[in-house]
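Per reviewer request, we include the raw input and output of the structure prediction for the construct analysed in the revised manuscript.
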Amino acid sequence: MGIRLNDVSFLTWNIYMGADLTPLIGAPANEIPDRLTAVFRHFLATNFPVRVKAIARQIALAKPDFIGLQEAERWQLEIPNLPIVTFDFVSLLLAELRSRGLHYEIAAENRNFLGRLPDSNGNTIQVLDRDVILNRKGRHVKIINRQEANFNTNLTVPLGGQPFVILRGWSSIDVMLRGHIFRMINTHLEPASAEIRNAQAQEILEGPANTNLPLIITGDLNSPPDGTAYTMFINAGFQDVWSGVGEDFGFTCCQGPDLLNAVSQLTRRIDYILFKNDWVPIKADVIGDSQSDRTKTGLWPSDHAGVSATFDIGVSPPH
């Protein structure tokens, strides 16, 4: 008999961009600077350089082989005649993981919406939204193909009197591990419009998910288990690892926007690891949802909890 290839592990986590951008949407141009200053102060208060330590601590406990991150932002503060101040979530997280003896690398990255506007202090604020797949080094993994794309259907909102497209997308990697090839897809679907969210789900199903390879989808689908987008994936043959081997409710959303709510406000499940074709789920956990997971300054690691899961895949060839 062949031996099972066990302990292939995945993590999905929306690590929170750090601020609520909705005050900017629909604001007239003359109000943008004051509102942007307030948004950026909100971002500074949620303190990603502190939160990243709590996020890395949870990743170090789970030690996933592959990580799907959503809202892996890059904020930049441009002050005239001074170097740009950059908060690169991915670089900060990779450095924090290295300090813990864990070595990950970027396997795929999709760049989504990019905004750059003046604040009320004479500066310019830029934010780039990204979703990223990381893989852990040392598992004899070979990435044989990667794809990165934006959706054709996206939400457009008014911003400073001009239309602004909230561009979103997906990325995927094809992985060879011990003779097995599988595909991992990572995405973040539109939260504000069910019609657009469903269209984005359909693009994934007709695109990278249209394969006979063993498939994993990690992502913030912004759809509860009775929602249309989630149901579209289930009807296409995907299974939800939490429904199979998870315990309790598995809630992942959402803490308060300032991350300081005393009692957890996670009451919805919208973050998933879905699988199809030849996977055997072993276990699943929610991470970053306990009081002990908070930073020393009281911040939750993110407004979402993460989901981790371990699988077997197929049967390895007999020796």
